[in-house]
Amino acid sequence: MKNIATIGIDLAKNIFQIHGTDSKGKTVLVKRMKRANVLNFFANMKPCVIGMEACGGSHHWARELKKLGHQPKQMPPQYVKPYVKTNKNDRNDAEAICEAVTRPNMHFVPMKTIEQQDIQAVHRCRERQVKNRTALSNQARALLLEIGIAVPKGFRYLRTMLPELVGDNESGLTPRLRELIADMYSEFVDIEARIKNYNKELEKMSQESEACRRLRQMPGFGPLSATAFVASIGDPHTFKNGRQVAAWLGLVPRQHSSGNNQRLGRISKRGNTYLRTLL
């Protein structure tokens, strides 16, 4: 236990797999444990490098392990996969993570604070409501089109035409369809109210955050894009320059070059799709 320099931990819901090596890379620890025993186990260890895949809950474990004096590092799963030997199982995954975290050129995922995750949670809930509004709008248009009523594009037409159609006895709607459209309009109003509340919450968060206030001084950054950028970027010191941030967002050209032939295509579209859409 005293000679452990690097640990790879395969995160899970209940059973965690741990693989540890010494400073020379020799395996000195292979262990499975339950979630409830993980922190107690690492609390009794000397500080070491702990690698893990970036996944659901990884930021929580990284923060907790850092409090214990360890050096947690998160990696994209696709960068860990080449180090998996033979068949895939928890034991081999933990060994691959332990090997990958020692690579000098490995790209690590910045650890998020709890405040950044709060902002991200609001964005995720808002994004879900926006998708629900779009789906509801498309369904309402399709149902009305089946009886010969074409609703123009834009949510503003739904806000005005749906209540008019429900209240007009000469609109051609059957009683059953009239009831359905009335219910859909009620749901549409409720969704828009929820989106408005999320927008207010993000506006409040952007005013409370110094990083968001600084971003909003730049052209094109509003409360949505500023808060999403701060929540997604993690620790900005992870990136050496702005070009690395652009590459992380997938805004640089895709390259397929060989020798003297330089081929640059469209943007790579890697990274955070939601943030890239806002920008």
Main beta-sheet annotation: 5 strands, mixed
What is the number of helical segments per DSSP (H or I, 4+ residues)? 11
Q: What is the mean pLDDT?
A: 89
Order of helices and strands, N to C?
A: EEEHEHEHHHHHHHHEEH
Strand adjacency order, main sheet: 3-2-1-4-5
Domain module tally: 3
**Share of residues in helices:** 40-55%
Regions with little confidence, pLDDT below 50 for 5+ residues: none
Describe this structure in words.
With 279 residues, the chain is an alpha/beta fold. The chain has 3 domains: 6-94, ATPase, nucleotide binding domain (Nucleotidyltransferase, domain 5, 2-Layer Sandwich); 118-212; 239-278, no CATH class. The chain is built from 11 helices and 7 strands. It has a 5-stranded mixed sheet with strand order 3-2-1-4-5. The chain is elongated, with a radius of gyration of 25 Å. 24% of the residues are buried. The mean pLDDT is 89.
